[in-house]
Design brief:
By secondary structure, the protein is mainly β. It has 1 helix and 9 strands, in the order αβββββββββ.
Length: about 140
């Protein structure tokens, strides 16, 4: 026996699609975002090659808005040594603030031990690191 076809399933599917389109129009995509997305574009810089352990080096960061690309002024940066080779290794400051160009920095001093040091700059709980190597201790 042959059953007569009904249009009910097709109408229900059409209604669901229409409802989804209406809901998408009521809630624009810009209302959604990523949780814990870094609002900053942070560039960290230092020496590109190994340096002598008997000299100090400058480490700098530039902080820009990830949304606009503009420099972020008066932003605090927390500095730390994540890897050290000597108890004499040190940073000139633990906390600095960016200037009008979004820049700030510290000076890294080496103890009498060859090897890598990892300097960490943390901006609003988002860390960035750079590895600096010294030789000739």
């Amino acid at each position: 026996m042959h059953r007569p076809r009904t249009r009910t399933p097709r109408l229900i599917r059409s209604g669901v699609v229409l409802l989804a389109l209406v809901a998408a129009g009521l809630f624009p995509q810009s209302a959604f975002g990523y949780i814990r997305q870094n609002p900053y574009d942070v560039r960290i810089s230092g020496p590109a090659r190994s340096v002598d352990c008997d000299r100090d080096v400058d480490i700098a960061v530039t902080v820009r808005s990830a949304a606009t690309g503009k420099a972020v002024r008066n932003q605090f940066v927390e500095w730390s040594l994540k890897k050290s080779q000597s108890s004499s290794d040190g940073l000139s400051d633990r906390r600095t603030k960016t200037n009008g160009d979004g820049q700030t920095g510290v000076t890294l001093s080496f103890g009498r031990a060859n090897g890598n040091r990892v300097v960490r700059a943390e901006i609003a709980t988002f860390p960035t690191t750079i590895t600096v190597t010294c030789t000739g201790a």
